[in-house]
C-alpha cells in the first residue's frame, strides 16, 4: 500500500463528505478505490463506511470485520473524521 493510494482514498472520501455522504458519483469513486485495494485493512475500513452510507449494514459489518474494526456509534461524518485522522497519520 502506497502513501499515494491512501491519499487518493482520503481525497475521494473528502469529496464524498462534501457531497453530504450520499450515494452518487462521489460514493462510486470512493467505493471503486476501496475495491481496488481489497484485503488492505485501511481500504477495507473505507469499504465498510461506503456500505454504511449505502444503508447495507450487513455488508458494512462484513467489511468492518475484514478491517479489524467496529462500526462507529456516531454519524457517518464523525466516523469519517476518526478514519481520516488514523489514515493521515500514515502519510
Give the DSSP E fraction (strand runs of 2 or more residues): under 5%
**Class per helix and strand makeup:** mainly alpha
Please give the radius of gyration in angstroms. Answer: 11 Å
Query: Which H/E pattern describes the elements?
Result: HHHHH
Counted by DSSP, the helix tally is: 5
Whole-number total of structural domains: 1
Biggest sheet record = none
Low-confidence stretches: none
Helix amount: over 70%
Record field, number of beta strands: 0
Mean pLDDT over all positions: 96
Choose one word for the global shape: globular
Between the first and last Cα atoms, what is the distance in angstroms?
Answer: 11 Å
Protein model, in words:
By secondary structure, the chain is mostly helical. The chain has one domain (3-88). It is 73% helix and 0% strand. The chain has 5 helices and no strands. The chain has helices at 3-18, 25-36, 41-54, 57-67, 76-88. It is globular, with a radius of gyration of 11 Å. The mean pLDDT is 96.
Which short descriptors sum up this protein?
91 residues; mainly alpha; 5 helices; 0% strand
List the topology elements.
Elements: H1 3-18, H2 25-36, H3 41-54, H4 57-67, H5 76-88
Helix pairs in contact: 1-2, 1-5, 2-3, 3-4, 3-5
Amino acid at each position: 500500500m502506497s502513501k499515494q493510494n491512501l491519499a487518493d482514498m482520503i481525497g475521494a472520501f473528502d469529496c464524498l463528505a462534501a457531497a453530504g455522504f450520499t450515494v452518487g458519483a462521489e460514493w462510486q469513486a470512493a467505493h471503486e478505490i476501496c475495491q481496488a485495494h481489497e484485503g488492505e485493512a485501511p481500504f477495507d475500513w473505507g469499504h465498510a463506511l461506503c456500505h454504511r452510507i449505502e444503508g447495507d449494514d450487513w455488508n458494512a459489518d462484513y467489511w468492518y470485520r475484514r478491517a479489524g474494526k467496529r462500526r462507529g456509534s456516531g454519524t457517518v461524518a464523525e466516523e469519517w473524521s476518526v478514519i481520516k485522522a488514523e489514515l493521515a497519520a500514515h502519510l
